[in-house]
Design goal:
Strand order of the largest sheet: 5-4-3-6-7-9-8
CATH architecture of the largest domain: 3-Layer(aba) Sandwich
Distance between the termini: 62 Å
Helix content: 25-40%
Largest sheet: 7 strands, mixed
Number of domains: 2
Structural class: alpha/beta
Number of strands: 9
Shape: globular
Order of helices and strands: HHHHHEEHEHEHEEHHHEHEE
Length: 288
């Protein structure tokens, strides 16, 4: 516990929070998370705080920081506690209405940017958009691109629209409510980007407190975790221009079965930084 919340400098508060977070089974980098908390509450970057003169932070900052650290130590996701998350180098608003953006999902943005960078006025769709981090990151990376982002959850789309406004791209990403490809009927795209729910239903109840805090709709992939891939396999080609592609995130260990469900075709498997087969890139064929 922090014995005094009065007159602590950024360094002192950081040390106290690091000590508070150390030993929690849910915190793998207590120093980094402590820095994130101090920077977020003070409205300054950690580098700015370190370069300061050691001026004490307001007492309310120290008190809020301790309260957040205690909840984080118990397993609540820090992104929800602070109300934001970082993805592809950008800050996004995040709360319990949306899945927390994850580093491995950045693969979808990288694949899309690489493939569409030299295409004139490309259009793409982001399915199960959640916070909107994928679609927004793509249009920030490709100023000439436009996207349509869908989600079944109206509350998730509220967060996504706020994020689009935060980054000034609300005129380049259109949000539509509906299940998977249903809101896209009659439209064609150069790329489909999909991060579907893929945790088996039976595993949901045994998730730790961090994953349990996230919306079940964004996690539950049906009895074997593959329901959404079955639905996607039947229709993804219908939403693409000739020469288009789909990039889809896949759960750890699920790639062989997902490839079987997709059937014959031209596919590329992209590993994440841990070496897990994480993204499946599927070609529509016949160049546009």
């Amino acid at each position: 516990m922090i014995t005094s919340t009065d007159g602590l400098s950024a360094r002192e508060l950081h040390r106290a929070l690091t000590s508070l977070l150390t030993g929690s089974p849910y915190v793998t980098a207590p120093g980094s998370e402590a820095a994130w908390i101090v920077g977020h509450l003070s409205g300054r970057s950690w580098a700015q705080l370190l370069a300061g003169t050691g001026t004490p932070l307001p007492p309310d900052v120290s008190a809020q920081a301790e309260a957040i650290a205690l909840r984080r130590r118990a397993g609540e996701p820090l992104q929800y506690l602070l109300g934001d998350a970082y993805f592809y180098g950008h800050r996004f608003l995040a709360d319990r209405r949306v899945l927390i953006p994850r580093p491995e999902t950045e693969l979808l943005v990288s694949v899309c940017a690489e493939r569409l960078r030299d295409r004139r006025a490309p259009v793409f769709a982001d399915i199960a958009t959640g916070s909107g981090c994928i679609a927004i990151s793509v249009v920030l990376e490709l100023p000439h691109a436009r996207g349509v982002a869908t989600d079944l959850s109206a509350s998730a789309l509220e967060v996504a629209l706020k994020n689009a406004r935060l980054h000034g791209v609300e005129d380049r990403v259109e949000f539509r409510q509906g299940h998977l490809l249903e809101p896209l009927k009659g439209l064609l795209f150069d790329a489909l980007l999909i991060n579907p729910p893929y945790i088996p239903s039976g595993d949901i109840a045994s998730l730790g407190p961090e994953l349990a805090a996230e919306p079940v709709m964004a996690l539950d992939g049906g009895p074997d975790g593959l329901d959404f891939y079955r639905a996607i396999a039947r229709h993804w080609r219908d939403a693409l221009f000739p020469g288009g592609f789909m990039a889809c995130e896949v759960g750890a260990g699920q790639m062989p079965e997902v490839l079987r469900l997709m059937g014959p075709g031209r596919y590329r498997v992209v590993p994440d930084l841990s070496g897990v087969a994480r993204a499946l890139v599927a070609e529509r064929g016949a160049v546009r």
